[in-house]
Amino acid sequence: MAAPLYTTASGLLFHAGKILIMTVGLPARGKTHISRALERYLRWMGVKTTVVSLGDYRRKTLGGAQKLPPDYFSIGEKSPETLALRKKVSDGCENLIWEFFEGGGQVVIYDANNGLRKNRQALAEKFDKLGIHVVMLGHVFCEWAEVQSVCDNKEIIETNIRNVKISSPDYRGWDQDKAVEDYYGRIRLREQAYETIEETEWPYIRIFNVGEKIMVNKIRGYLQSRIVFFLMNIHNRFRMIYFARSGQSLIEHSYKADSDLSPAGWEYSERLKEFERRLVIWTSTRRRAHHTAWPFLTSDRESTPRVKVIEKLQMCEINPGVWDGLTPDQARKFYPEEWARFVKDPYAFRAPRAESYHDLSVRLEPILIELEREKEDLLIIGHSSVIRCLLSYLIGLPASEIPAIEVARGDLLEVVPTSYGVHSQAFHFWDGPGRRVDAGDGEVELEHLSNRDENNFYENYAEDTKGKKRFTTSDLAAHCNGFEQTTAAAET
Questions:
Q1: H-run or E-run covering 279
Q2: Residue 142 parent element (H or E)
Q3: Which stretches does DSSP call E strand in 151-271?
Q4: What pLDDT does 302 receive?
Q5: Which of the residues in the chain have pLDDT under 70?
Q6: Is the CB of residue 148 less than 8 Å from the CB of residue 25?
Q7: Cβ-count burial of 325 within 10 angstroms (0-12 exposed, 13-18 middle, 19+ buried)?
Q8: C-alpha–C-alpha distance, residues 184 and 229, integer Å
């Protein structure tokens, strides 16, 4: 299941109750990466989830590390001023947790070191006494879980510091080597007092070396089991994910035809191949998708990087059912009641004998898990409906916005998930048929958006949802759910 199928009377999913996940571990062990990845997955499932980051809250409240007292990160006696500042941050994080639960949220991931046993025990007991706990009567009202990230691989730690930690706001403007040295100093201080999880009265998940081994204790229920399953499939290796639509086909408007590429489609695929590098390519089993990847396999193997192409049945385009080949006007005329429901909720609506975007999201869940497992750079050559769903997962768009994403044929979208957000760029490489539109009077206009094929619009036409704007590939690059990002318009 990759999207919610039902809710309880309380508004909580899967009868799981409210869950607070406390991360436990020394700095640079992957806690932030795990927290953000898990938040992304749970939100995709429809679970109201948030990450409360102690580091982020501290920076917003007190400023960067250079603005803190010298004894803020030290172990042992601290000045009254430092103690007051640390209490202000911890109390503020607790308030954020409570506010989210009281507002109807279900899962809070508390991203902090939580390295002292007495402190995390006190925090757990505080929430337990206030009603956030497991109760009798066979109904789970609330569950606790601690996630500990254990890492003794020095290479992983060094890579995590250089790729993640020194890019945080704490070290903005610092010399890289000095920032690394300073962060290692923080780790050495924390190591002096750190206490690993041994308290078996609470459920816990211990992750070793970012997924090398996982140990669990007292994990119960569907939602907690799904959390464990997801954590078994992630890594923090840096990689890039690219998206491109398949080339134009001979019968562009027919789902049933499964036609081959048109001459323009083959030319398009050759232009896409110019983006040659070592990577893995995923396509659907439809002809126009996996044939778009053929030039990557037929090029001179000695002079080009190694490329692996994999076809995936789950990545086939959305099934339009009886609307296959229809224009919007025809669908509105022949199916007026269904059309009214479609306009009201394009994400959940299912045309007769068709799939909804919700159905497609459920179908794509195995692809999401494989996406998290893949360690090589990845190029996904696919259909616009599939790319919409995968992009919404990676950048955090709400489900209602999925049908509104414009996927332009001729744009290559680069997405790089990181621990502190999502970076993306949009590269333009094609202006030929399949992107070009007739502006009238014999003139040809190059449209930034995808060519809106009036036929088979269910696949190719991005419909406004609930009054929200359409998202183009450039919009997506500039959006990224409010995270840091870059945009570009360049030849690949």
A1: strand 279-283
A2: strand 142-150
A3: 204-208, 213-217, 241-245
A4: 56
A5: 1-15, 28, 130-172, 183, 189-193, 209-211, 299-305, 419-420, 434-458, 460-492
A6: yes
A7: middle
A8: 32
Place of tokens 């000095």: 178
| 43/50 Cα distance (integer angstroms) | 8
Paired strand residues for 109? 21, 51
Residue 311, number of CB atoms within 10 A of its CB: 15
Q: Of 111, 182, 324, 377, which one is the catalytic site residue?
A: 111
> Which residue(s) pair with 332 in the sheet?
none
The pair of three-digit structure tokens given for residue 310, joined into one six-digit string? 């994999």
**Half-sphere exposure for 4 (CA within 13 Å, toward CB):** 16
| Residue 275 DSSP label | S
The amino acid at residue 193 is: A
CA angle 6, 9, 13 (to 5 degrees): 45
* Amino acid making up residue 143: E
Q: DSSP assignment of 25-58, as one string?
A: --TTSSHHHHHHHHHHHHHHHT--EEEEEHHHHH
175 burial (CB, 10 Å; 0-12 / 13-18 / 19+) is exposed
Residues in the chain: 492
Enumerate the β-bridge partners of residue 412. Answer: 427
Q: Is 111 a known active-site residue?
A: yes
Answer whether 465's CB lies under 8 Å from 400's CB: yes
Cβ burial, residue 129 (10 Å; 0-12/13-18/19+): exposed
Confidence (pLDDT) at 146: 58
Dist. CA 314–CA 368, nearest whole Å: 11
**Alpha-carbon span 244 to 261, nearest angstrom:** 15
Torsion sign across C-alpha atoms 375, 381, 385, 388: positive
Full-model pTM = 0.80
Residue 163 CB burial class (10 angstroms; 0-12, 13-18, ≥19): middle
Residue 422 is which amino acid?
A: V
Query: How distant is the alpha carbon of residue 361 from its chain centre?
Result: 13
Please give the biggest Cα pair distance in the chain.
80
Contact present, 64 and 99 (Cβ < 8 Å) = no
Q: How far, in Å, are 68, 87, 240, 344 from residue 84 at the CA level?
A: 12, 5, 42, 52
